[in-house]
Amino acid sequence: AGVIGTCVARELSRYEELSIDVVEKEADVGWGTTKANSGIVHGGYTSSPGTLRAKFEVLGNRAMERWCTELDVPFERIGAYVLAWKEEDIEVLRQLKKQGEKNGVKGLKIIGGDDARSVEPILNKNIIAALDAPMVGIVSPYLLAIAAFENAKHNGVDFHFNTKVISVELLNDRINVITTGGIFPADLVINCAGIHSGEIANLFGDTHIKIEIYKGEYFLGDKEMSKGITKVNFPIPTPISKGILVAPTTERTVILGPTSENIDTPSTATTCEGLKKIERGIRKIYPDIDLSLVITEFTGLRAKDVSRDFVIGWSSRDDRVFHLAGIQSPGLTGAPAIAEYVGNVFKNRFSLHTKKQFDPIRKAPKRLSEMTPEEARRLWEKDPAYGRVVCRCEMVSEAEVREAIRRGATTLDGIKFRTRAGMGRCQGGFCTPWIMKILAEELKKPIPEITKKGFGSEIVVGYTKEKVYYEENK
Predict the structure, then answer these.
(1) What share of the chain is helix, strand, coil (3-state, %, to 5)?
(2) pTM (global) more than 0.70
(3) Parallel, antiparallel, or unpaired for β 232-234 and 80-84?
(4) What's the rounded Cα separation, in Å, for the pair 79 and 64?
(5) Which are the contacts of 252, defined by CB distance < 8 A and separation ≥ 6?
(6) Which residues are catalytic?
(7) Residue 211 CB neighbour total at 10 angstroms
(8) Sign of CA pseudo-dihedral 283, 285, 286, 291
């Protein structure tokens, strides 16, 4: 249930012949690669022509605005600069421009350093040129996954969280997917398990899919840092990475990073070495950036197939299995187009028909932080919970927290990614106890059972003065 899985489920939910189950080992949507993503809708100029990465990057860039409009997800086409410091860098910009044009990208142009600084005055004065890519955009990766999940669920898809795949049984008339939540008999299986997609492929005998895990560390800056940063700013790309970038987010914070390190064992720990590398990369772009405005650091994991391309298609061992593996960057960009491609493949192979009742529209919940005083007043009068601010940093009301739970959140992180409560300057220092109380009320659970991100991440072990509490509340 990452952004690929939720978008594919949403697209396939339009067909009346399909009954769809999504099994996810985590407690919520988008908690793998999706949640720790740069949120960049890439422009199509860094992927080699003829690759699946190039194809779906360009198609996904074109489709993203339509998907975000239907799903009510913020999307902004703010453009990007790829920055050059040396004369030899300019030749790289020319190659990127030529490559993008070969991929069908329009609007690319090379501009001088002064022209770039006229838009971004705080850019390094040593920058001599930039590739201007106006088609690049920004989107919230986890909000896109959550929205696709909600719309897929609205259209009949069943999601099963805390459900880890253990093995599969290949029978003549079906495939049994054996999980911690029971056995799921299936006619068809789609593998979109992120960094685990190679392991899932191996269960079906597709040993040629070999996934390498790349770790990327990030800084996240608060809204004050975003002043003067209006575009996505990239360094010259390397063979393994697009480099340490600086970009505003749709929430008006700033994302800085990532590093790129091949690791053997999944780990989301940040390191002093990695964070210092980010700082060096950032200072090269913005020498005077104020890093005291960094709110937090985090790490994301990316799945790269050894082919260095996306692996998309039917299994070579069993034509009931469809793989979506090694969907590294620009996988977020490509997600809508990949989903539509899968939909067309299934429609053509199985002569599927669109449901008359299929509804592509999902409306986002109302946010107090985005309302005018008059809009807020009208909502307070209807529901006083909109007048009780739970998260002061991000202006999140009690009503929004309760709405998030009713839409599927069961944990503190589930609330955080849906509402931004806990994502602000204090990182949940004020709002956590209140949100735990609301979760306990809505889920009808005792507070010691409330978790940060599922089983094993409980916040408290019990009540103080437990006997008195239970006597008063029995």
Answers:
(1) 40, 20, 40
(2) yes
(3) parallel
(4) 14
(5) 223, 226
(6) 42
(7) 24
(8) negative
